[in-house]
């Protein structure tokens, strides 16, 4: 609890049990910052986490931020996946910066929501006379899950099926009125037997609860809590650094975290762009490619290192122009180059220089615009040999030069035209449908 150079610590550390954190999520007092990524774990990962917790193994620490109840510096929150929605003006006192995937997994497992239901198979333990040795337990057989499928009933939700098979659902464990003890009474009565058999089963399952199931609620995670006075810039930097390991964030998500502190909400900007331009949705545009176009306009390069250095002022200056350019470029290749689906795009990067230069082409005099668009068609159909991010810098420069007042017409070395036979090995290796359309486009435009 000390900081380099002396002074007061900016964080506190203390253990928090799973049951407490689930209650806080349910009560909307524990949430996520809105710039946090979506939940991505699959059921197998959640199952492994449950096994680790039941085994009392270390499962990592959590990082949280105390948030002031008022003030313009509070981060906008959002609920965990599957948890109750937050009100519009909600300000949860605590936000989770690191540990979202684990807490979301545990919440969904304990509340019976999400894509799977998690189960503890007790059939091999209930009548066993062997001592209950936690280290000898076969957790692969003990803890399983049932995937939820749309339109199909969830088998493990059937109480009779549970009792028939001695299968206890994890999401009932912390329920006050339908917890493990209540389930045991029902299951033992369901199977019948003499009084000694029923008593033996009750005692055995009580031992199972103490040895294996208790950690499901009482397991403590080490929690590091950042003080509410921690600046947004510091919080975003911490968030970015933490998420360079573990579940990898995309470049778009890392930039989202970084620029939030400077008043730019990339999640909202991207959602708004997709809402305003259906073509971005139709062609499943990767927001990283949009950031590449922004970087290309602001720095002259679209390489990843430059994108990672993107600043809020770059986004503010170029975002709207690039979004309009991307939408117009997609409509151009759809209507003029017969690219009717994203599957017919050789790679998403091909649109980056087009989007970055589109406003220059659009605003050029009609004659120059016509020549530039014709050359766009040639560029779009050209084979690529160098890395596309480097090629984009050259092409964007050439496209822009074609429309500049000075030196028109410019002497530009364009990529070679494609012949109808499509000599490019990469193009020939594409699907027959794509090859056919590109071949037709070659005959029409070149």
TrEMBL record:
Taxonomy, superkingdom: Bacteria
InterPro entries registered for this protein in UniProt: GmrSD_N (IPR004919)
GmrSD restriction endonucleases N-terminal domain: residues covered: 23-259
Pfam families assigned to the protein according to its UniProt record, in alphabetical order: GmrSD_N (PF03235)
Name of the protein in its database record: GmrSD restriction endonucleases N-terminal domain-containing protein
Species: Modestobacter versicolor
Phylogenetic lineage: Bacteria, Bacillati, Actinomycetota, Actinomycetes, Geodermatophilales
